[in-house]
Design brief:
It is a single chain. By secondary structure, this protein is of the alpha/beta class. It has 8 helices and 12 strands. The strands form 3 sheets. Strands 2-1-3-4-5 form a 5-stranded parallel sheet, sandwiched between helices. A 4-stranded antiparallel sheet has the order 6-7-8-9, covered by helices on one side. The protein is elongated and about 60 Å long. Bound molecules: calcium ion.
Length: 218
């Protein structure tokens, strides 16, 4: 559940989270959001500055629900006091606007992981990507990746077997609004292949010309 009155941020969150396979419901006011929350709602991404009611009130109300969802607050204020108040009101985590989508997704994963008590990792054949420790292994041998390489690998491994469009990789790994050259992406793909692929063997990451990249299933 996303409760956010800013249409740009709200629609971007909805699209990004749906792209990650989450079932998303987006409300633009506290009243609408509260009436849409279900006992099955795992996580509420909650803007504090809502038109009809302070987000902190919503947070307190959510906290009082029997099937209490995780709450991730978004605050444009960026003031420590708001964050402290939010956490006191029962929020589980917070992000200060403007935030990067990759950062938001990491927080969302952590929150939903807490909600269902699962360990967060991807296994693609002999490749294991552990999101908790940010450790990557191939056949139990550690692979050293730089932060962006790791984020890129996560984006590909999460969608293993499916093509991930270049724009989505750029958006998810680098920034919410990326208008720069896509050369950076190609360089990081090259680096990943160099670190992950056996010399002379077939690459784990296929190039789908004009579209994007795909991590192939074994
Ligand atoms: Ca707002």
């Amino acid at each position: 559940m996303v409760i956010e009155d800013d249409a740009g941020i709200g629609s971007s969150l909805e699209r990004t989270l749906e792209g990650q396979g989450y079932e998303v419901s987006w409300s633009t006011s506290a009243a609408e959001g509260m009436s849409a929350v279900r006992p099955t709602t795992a996580l509420v991404v909650l803007d504090l500055g809502l038109p009809d009611r302070d987000g902190l009130d919503v947070c307190r109300m959510l906290n009082a629900e029997a099937a209490r969802p995780q709450v991730l607050i978004l605050t444009a204020r960026g003031e420590e006091a708001d964050v402290v108040l939010g956490l006191d009101a029962g929020a589980d985590d917070y992000l200060v606007k403007p935030f990067r989508l990759a950062e938001l997704l990491a927080r969302v994963r952590a929150c939903t992981r807490r909600a269902d008590g699962e360990r967060d990792r991807f296994v693609v054949g002999d490749l294991v990507v552990d999101l908790d420790t940010r450790a990557v292994t191939i056949d139990d041998v550690p692979v050293e990746l730089r932060p962006k390489e790791f984020d890129l690998l996560v984006a590909l491994a999460r969608n293993a077997g499916r093509v991930v469009r270049r724009e989505r990789l750029l958006e998810e790994v680098w920034d919410e609004h990326w208008f720069g050259s896509t050369k950076t992406l190609d360089i990081h793909i090259w680096a990943l292949r160099r670190k992950l692929d056996a010399p002379g063997g077939r690459s784990r990451i296929s190039t789908v010309r004009g579209v994007g990249y795909r991590m192939d299933l074994p």
